[in-house]
Design a protein that fits this description.
It is found in: Cell membrane. The chain crosses the membrane at residues 16-40, 52-72, 92-116, 137-160, 166-188, 287-303, 323-341, 353-386, 440-459. Residues 252-267 have a biased composition (Gly residues). The chain is mainly alpha-helical and 525 residues long. The chain has a domain at 15-193 and 281-465: Growth Hormone, Chain: A, CATH 1.20.1250.20. It has helices at residues 2-9, 14-28, 32-43, 48-75, 78-96, 102-130, 136-164, 167-187, 279-283, 286-302, 308-315, 320-337, 341-345, 350-367, 374-401, 408-437, 439-489; strands at residues 216-217, 223-224, 240-241, 247-248. Helix 3 (32-43) packs parallel to helix 7 (136-164). The longest helix is centred in the last third of the chain and has 51 residues, at 439-489. The two termini are 45 Å apart.
Amino acid sequence: MRGWLREAAGGLPRQFWFLWTGTLINRLGAFVIIYLAIYLTQGLHFSQSQAGLVLGAYGLGGALGTMAGGVLTDRWGRRPTMLTAQFGTATLMLTLGFAEGFWPLAAGAFLLGIFAEGVRPAFQAMMVDILPDRDRIRAYSLNYWAINLGFAGAAMIAGLAAQFDYLLLFIVDAGTTLITALISLLFLPETRPAAAEGRPATRARSVGAARSTDGSRSADGARSTDGARSTDGARSTDGARSTDGARWGAGARWGAGGRWGAGGRPMGGRRRTPRGPGLGTVFRDRVFVAFLALNFLVVLVVMQHMSTLPIAMTADGLSPATFGWVIAVNGLLIVAGQLFVPKLIEGHDRSRVLALATVIMGAGFGLTAFAGTAAFYAVTVVVWTLGEMLQSPSNSALVAELSPAPLRGRYQGVNSLSWSAGTALAPALGGFVQQHAGSAALWLGCAAVAGLVATGQLISGPSRERRAAELRALERVPATSAAREASATGTGTPTTAAPTGTAMTHEEDVTPPSRSAAVGVPADE
């Protein structure tokens, strides 16, 4: 047992455990979102469609929050973005508990969504920053385990609190969010890589256009260290074009940051901080966007458990407390089995794992069409939870691998956007179908959507794996170049700016990017 625990949790950085602890505390108090649908329909007597619209307003705010959070994470930093979002969430959560009427609640939910979901890109980018590749699936599983341990406890405790006073849900949720913010304030330093801080570096390379020190060609037509040829014929940095049409090379433009001359100064002589490629770069990455589209459809299915499932159960005569115990099965099952999942899926094709996971989730939600008792509902939760357990770690690790280091905040923000957009649409769409076509049509429709997603995972898998391999190769270019320099000059071990195991640009190299390419912008496939 001790050996298994060491293998599952040993060797991870100290900062990860502060993130993990904050996650656990925050999720233990995450009462409001679990019971918001019941609060609106049972406590305030909203219709199913009205409840869905309020939940959708939260999701819409979350979509905007993740976009803003992703940009701020890269430009402002992980830590200040997290702190602003967490303190704002605590304040708005308490305010929402005193709101009355449809429009105040919808507006409050929208603002809450902006701050509550705005923390996600910063949190996820910090996780990627501090974890080496080899530890990511293991760490994501541990974090996912903490989320669901907290979720299980919150579901059961909040069910009892809801029977006493719904306001307690908001007070406890705000309090635990405040504790999480204090952990971030006291124990989490900034982790933003040097390239994301606006320091140009000669050794940064892009997937679309990059020339390495040894003149070999990379996987996309640019120059790299491994001798592979590009698939898109992009030119190298001597007047090269990156994937988003910007021209890179001597005195090149670094994103929107202006033209750089000798000594890292703009051509006009005034020093300016360069900006990397913006959100448009992420949306032009067709491989990543296709993956997010599949995630979006998964969210439409999965988020029914937070909106239409409690309404269906109360319509069958089951109490809010019963819903709490049934949905807690999800968290308890993940707590019991999630740490074994990395070993189970290790060595298996990720696309097939994701496809199988989606089929299992679809089967679980499809079975809900035939449920009518607490026991049957619990069985359906067990089924779709097994799929969720397989899906989560592979999905998180793949998003991390598809995110170039200097653009991690933006990539994580757009990834969170797919979840927030799904969270916004799922309750509104699900509530509409449930009210006008019935619960059975809703659950069978969820099964059909899951089947489509599984097919998409199998079709798009090879292109994702090629992209991930390209980015891994490019992140090794700076370390390889530095090692050659150190060997040639006799200076010893090269200094790198990436203690976490992911190669970054060198902080000490601040000469203008006269021969460097764009930051890690992936080419379209």
